[in-house]
Write a structure and sequence with these properties.
Blueprint lengths: L1 E6 L9 E7 L6 E2 L4 E6 L4 E5 L4 E6 L6 E3 L3 E7 L5 H7 L36 E2 L5 E2 L1 H10 L17 H14 L23 H7 L4 H6 L10 H14 L4 E9 L1 H12 L10 H15 L5 E6 L2 E6 L5 E3 L1 E3 L2 E3 L2 E2 L7 H16 L13 E4 L19 E5 L3 E7 L2 E15 L5 H16 L7
Parallel strand pairs: 14-18, 18-19
Antiparallel strand pairs: 1-8, 2-4, 2-7, 3-6, 4-5, 6-8, 9-10, 11-21, 12-13, 14-17, 15-16, 19-21, 20-21
Helix pairs in contact: 2-3, 8-10
């Protein structure tokens, strides 16, 4: 028997610390190589940490909720031998085991330069019917718990009435918009008398009370939320961007009726039967098309030893700002300019679902060249978005709603939206910003322009 100590690994993205969110094992548990031992939250996302050893958990060294540096010992294992037992167990796994010591382990899906490490596949999970008749697989139930969704209130669309992942995500997004829509009614009592605090003892009344009177009365009225993990990284990035790049915002109101008609046709098309289609798909295609026509919008300001230069990218890593329970993240679709309509739709679906679950890989949040933020899902018409660091522009797509619109001299109901764009004025001049937004507007007004 031997003892192996596992330290918090570097996920290969330059992160220096992480928070232990939850332990999946306890002392005395038997684990195999690549079994998930805990969840950690880095500045990028929530990820699962696999075990590099097979054996018995001897001791958990870090408590939940604590933020620690990479290289800190987090768990100790008791193994049969240092070299004999682990390789035999590793052969039964689908992928190579992570490195064992010195913080060199590789997280699930996070390579440090080589191929991605895969976790041992679990047996197929069957849908479970609860006492109230809801059918859902265990991962879907966990997702619902994490998002605060009551499965009994979700409308199922899966086979035999099963609740799917899309069902939960759709319900969660709708709930986030309408969560605070109710206004409490005024009470029947117009006035009430609140007992005054009891007089303090004489000695304390002379200023010797270590807790001020107001603090005593206000106890429980405010809540302190630690700023850490994804929210801390997002806040730092936004401050850096807002105070380093001179932002200029322009916007345009658009008749998006033909975009809505195209979305409706795509939803009814057999080719898109298994793909979720939304106006964001057309917006993404419009942005990619417009970036090709105005490459400076896809550029970046780079400080150098000799001063500065502008790096113009001739590819598009399209970022989609995603609001998650842990804060704002911006994963991106690599080389989005190479994707057709169906592949881009699939990529958007994967990106948004993974982001909302908090499972986005750090590599998927790096290297973005331009960002879209869809504030329309929250019912907002327009905004002045902050540019993602390392980029020169971002567009915000507002809600699409029916409004009166003048068409051929007549007022008609049309689907109208507003597109706003913020740009780094060091990189892009006014004519470039305006031309880019006009191009995006032209596609949303007439998506047939994409066929060229």
């Amino acid at each position: 028997m031997s003892t192996q100590t596992f330290t918090l690994p570097d996920v290969g993205e330059g992160l220096t610390e992480a928070e232990i969110v939850s332990w999946k094992v306890a002392p005395g548990d038997t684990v195999a190589v690549n079994d998930v031992i805990c969840e950690i939250e880095t500045a990028k996302s929530l990820v699962e940490l696999p075990s590099p050893h097979a054996g018995v958990v001897g001791e958990v060294l870090v408590e939940e909720g604590k933020t620690i540096d990479v290289g800190t010992p987090i768990i100790r294992f008791v193994t049969e031998t240092a070299d004999a037992a682990a390789p035999e167990r590793a052969k039964r796994d689908e992928g190579p085991a992570p490195a064992a010591e010195g913080g060199g382990a590789v997280l699930v899906g996070y390579g440090t330069g080589g191929g991605a490490t895969s976790r041992r596949r679990k047996p197929a999970e069957r849908p479970v019917r609860s006492s109230v008749g809801v059918i859902a697989k265990p991962p879907i139930r966990k997702l619902a718990r994490d998002l605060g969704v009551d499965l009994a209130s979700v409308t199922p669309t899966g086979a035999d009435g099963e609740v799917t992942r899309d069902d939960v995500m759709k319900h969660a997004s709708q709930a986030s918009v309408f969560r605070n829509i109710e206004t409490p009614e005024w009470g029947d009592v117009r006035e009430e008398v609140v007992p005054a605090p009891a007089p303090a003892p004489v000695g304390l009344a002379r200023g010797l009370n270590p807790v001020p009177e107001r603090a005593q009365r206000d106890e429980g009225r405010t809540e302190a939320i630690p700023v850490k993990g994804v929210r801390k990284a997002s806040a730092n990035a936004m401050v850096q961007s807002a105070y380093s790049a001179p932002h200029v915002t322009v916007w345009k109101e658009i008749d998006a009726t033909r975009t809505m008609e195209l979305v409706k046709r795509l939803k009814a098309s057999p080719d898109f039967a298994d793909i979720k289609v939304s106006p964001l798909l057309i917006m993404a295609r419009a942005v990619i098309w417009a970036l090709r026509r105005t490459p400076m919008v896809n550029a970046a300001w780079v400080d150098t030893a000799d001063g500065a230069e502008i790096a113009v990218r001739h590819y598009v890593n399209l970022g989609i700002a995603a609001a998650t329970p842990r804060g704002l993240i911006v994963p991106n679709i690599k080389d989005a300019q190479t994707l057709g309509m169906k592949d881009l739709a699939r990529a958007l679906n994967r990106l948004t679902l993974t982001a909302r679950e908090g499972k986005t890989a750090p590599a998927d949040q790096q290297g973005g060249t331009f960002t879209i933020t869809n504030i329309g899902v929250f019912g907002m018409d327009a905004g002045t978005p902050i540019i993602n660091p390392g980029e020169a522009g971002i567009v915000a797509m507002g809600t699409i709603a029916q409004k009166p619109w003048v068409v051929d001299g007549e007022v008609r109901p049309r689907w109208v939206t507003t597109v706003a764009g913020s740009f780094d004025h060091r990189v892009i001049d006014g004519d470039g910003m305006s031309r880019f937004i006009a191009d995006v507007a032209a596609i949303l007004e007439e998506p047939a322009l994409l066929v060229d």
